[in-house]
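Appendix C: a fully annotated inverse folding record. The material below is reproduced so that readers can follow the format used throughout the book. The structure is listed first as tokens, followed by the designed sequence.
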């Protein structure tokens, strides 16, 4: 059974924006390559395939920054991160990007990383950023390997020193309690637990943590969400490529009655946009499940906390309920818009948020799963079409709408709607529809909104 963790793969990573594949994934690839090298890098060349999604978006999304920070051994939270390429050059190293066909990987987020250390042999690594900050190393110096950063790995070659790779995720201590939506609901009901409680138990058992340790870790991620929303409501901290910050204006207008309807839906939408403002200013956010969808779940959770006066533990359980839905998606599908479009990023975030609303409202695990399924059924066919290759247009408003929609999906199920298509099937359908999208609509900035005349006329600020 694949090792899928809420903290590793769903409510996380804690990262710098704007994209979990392009920043968190690339950063983790850099860390692993540094371990494989066993020395300080000197000349680094990164190659992206022209047909993939990295080639048209690497510059606007800062893939080189993330790789450089990882290669230097820095965390993503280090303030030096945003100047990592310049600092690497100042230290006597260089990172160059090339666009050329890659025959050794067909993943749209695949890359070739070639490094000449200060001493020793050249290193050649084929790597893939597989979505949501996940990674896969498939080749080292022409030899096939399987490295996903979730365990300690030692590579042994005749006559050469052992290459040791440290994990960049939490490691597994036990097998998963459930692996499908059907099993998830059955286990929850059999144990008399809400979906959030069942997910908390899942994560504690899987990682070998105590319940207190798991709750504390989720609280830390909730605090990151709170800080990112607050930062996004501070217009002076915005440094986006395309958009002017508007989240504060929307929230202020709602509070003064200057919008058509208002209410928790609008406030959640504004907070979701605030998180995305911060994410796209290279701020620290908690991916949920990705950087491009990082606003949805925080927008909903923070609004629920304000409207319902949720105690911290109930907010944590709502996050775990959201994480439970994401677990099943990670197991059955993907979080990579490059593979299946925006429906597996912002669409999935909306489904996770719908389950969180049900949990916060006291609904049962089956109702939470049904609310998530209904949400997924209404995002089928959603393309990933980032204007200018940035996660801003239309990503910010999609995060906002998904956050708002989560309340409606929850209300429909709690109000009596009987969902005929269960969560597992909704996930499978969403995945298949996403894969059927043409490449132009899967995070290449070559279709959809990205090629509208007004979009093509936009000029990035930096």
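Designed amino acids, in order:
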């Amino acid at each position: 059974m694949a090792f899928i963790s809420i903290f590793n793969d769903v409510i996380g990573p804690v990262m710098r924006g704007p994209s979990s594949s392009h920043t968190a994934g690339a950063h983790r690839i850099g860390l692993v390559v540094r371990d494989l090298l066993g020395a300080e890098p000197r000349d680094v060349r990164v190659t992206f395939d022209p047909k993939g999604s990295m080639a048209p978006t690497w510059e606007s999304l800062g893939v080189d920054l993330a790789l450089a920070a990882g290669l230097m051994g820095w965390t993503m939270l280090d303030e030096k991160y945003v100047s990592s390429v310049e600092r690497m050059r100042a230290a006597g190293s260089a990172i160059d990007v090339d666009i050329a066909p890659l025959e050794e990987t067909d993943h749209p987020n695949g890359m070739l990383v070639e490094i000449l250390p200060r001493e020793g042999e050249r290193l050649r690594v084929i790597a893939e950023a597989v979505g949501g900050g996940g990674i896969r190393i498939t080749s080292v110096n022409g030899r096939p390997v399987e490295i996903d950063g979730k365990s300690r790995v030692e590579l042994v070659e005749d006559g050469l020193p052992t290459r040791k790779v440290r994990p960049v995720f939490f490691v597994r201590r036990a097998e998963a309690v459930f692996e499908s939506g059907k099993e998830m609901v059955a286990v929850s009901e059999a144990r008399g637990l809400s979906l959030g409680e069942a997910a908390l138990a899942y994560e504690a058992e899987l990682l070998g943590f105590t319940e207190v340790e798991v709750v504390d870790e989720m609280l830390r991620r909730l605090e990151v969400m709170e800080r990112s929303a607050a930062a996004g409501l501070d217009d002076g901290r915005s440094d986006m490529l395309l958009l002017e910050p508007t989240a504060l204006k929307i929230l202020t207008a709602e509070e003064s009655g200057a919008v058509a309807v208002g209410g928790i839906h609008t406030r959640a939408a504004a907070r979701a946009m605030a998180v995305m403002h911060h994410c796209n200013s290279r701020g620290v956010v908690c991916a949920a499940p990705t950087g491009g969808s990082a606003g949805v779940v925080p927008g909903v959770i923070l609004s629920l906390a304000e409207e319902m006066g949720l105690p911290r533990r109930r907010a944590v359980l709502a996050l775990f309920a959201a994480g439970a839905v994401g677990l099943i998606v990670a197991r059955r599908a993907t979080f990579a818009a490059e593979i299946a479009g925006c429906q597996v990023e912002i669409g999935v975030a909306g489904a996770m948020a719908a389950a969180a609303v049900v949990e916060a409202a006291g609904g049962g695990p089956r109702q939470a799963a049904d609310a998530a399924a209904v949400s997924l059924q209404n995002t089928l066919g959603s393309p990933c079409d980032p204007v200018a290759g940035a996660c801003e247009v239309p990503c910010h408003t999609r995060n906002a709408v998904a956050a708002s929609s989560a309340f409606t999906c929850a209300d429909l199920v709690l109000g009596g709607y009987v969902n005929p298509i269960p969560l597992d099937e909704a996930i499978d359908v969403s995945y298949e529809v996403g894969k059927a999208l043409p490449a132009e609509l899967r995070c290449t900035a070559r279709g959809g909104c990205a090629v509208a005349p007004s979009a093509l006329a936009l000029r990035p600020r930096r």
